[in-house]
TrEMBL record:
PANTHER family: ACYL-MALONYL CONDENSING ENZYME-RELATED. Residues 14-136, 148-277 form the EamA domain. Signal peptide: none annotated. It holds the Pfam family EamA. It comes from Maribacter arcticus. The chain crosses the membrane at residues 12-29, 35-54, 66-86, 92-113, 120-140, 146-166, 178-198, 210-229, 236-256, 262-280. SUPFAM superfamilies: Multidrug resistance efflux transporter EmrE (SSF103481). GO terms for cellular component: membrane. This is Threonine/homoserine efflux transporter RhtA.
Amino acid sequence: MKNNHFQHLLEINLAMLFIATSGALGRYVQLPVTVTIGTRAILAFIVLFIFCKWKGFSFKIYKNDVLAILVSGVLMGIHWITYFYALKLSNVAIGMLSIFTYPVITAFLEPILLKTKFQLVHLLLAFLVLAGMYFLSPSLDLENTYTIAIGFGVFSALAYALRNILLKRKVAKYNGSILMAYQTAIVGVMLLPFLFTIEPVQILSQWQALVALAVLTTAIGHTLFLMTFKHFNITTVSILSSVQPVYGILIGTIFLSEIPKGTTILGGILILSSVVIESVRSKKQPKLS
């Protein structure tokens, strides 16, 4: 049991490391956001489709789950688009940290939507995460684009929280790669018209970053993330995943030379503290289906 719990924690941290590449890649790609997300979704779908066929996973979806999966795909598209606008209008730190209001949003929404027991500790840990974000964020000026970026980020967080809650009870029925294949297909279809608004050569010029977004961030990272839903409740997952901005800022520092300040380090410590506390606490909780 101890080894299994450690393995599940390792899996979610690995998922967060892969997903955290979205910050630096989102800043690096010089394409319209809708084109970036549309291309990312289509490439990720191709990779996931080939993988699922190779593994022999069934693509069959029960009729009563079709609407939930369709809506979750739309929410995923909204999450990605608004998140990338937040990145474009600010930097890796602001973009990633603003969407990590979603643990707080999840802590409020999960008991209402999934009829689970409300746990005060989740709110306390979520506010610890917010305290960390406060130290990581620069001073806000209503006259600059950072305020707009944070608005996009919080809206992205809302879409992400709703998508995660919606899929919580589907991961027991379907393989994570299958769910991600359907979601990337939905996003790809939604944004396909935007791919014809620019010259193909412009998309091809960014192929390395787009492939990295599709394979590392989306196909691998988000599939691993979905698989962790089987082992923790959604609020626990959201709080554990709060380590993602720390990974993202480190990646941004290495590859984009966005050097964090001393307050960033303090904020990172607060966020990691909430992750450690929830890791220990969740180990004592029964697995939720």
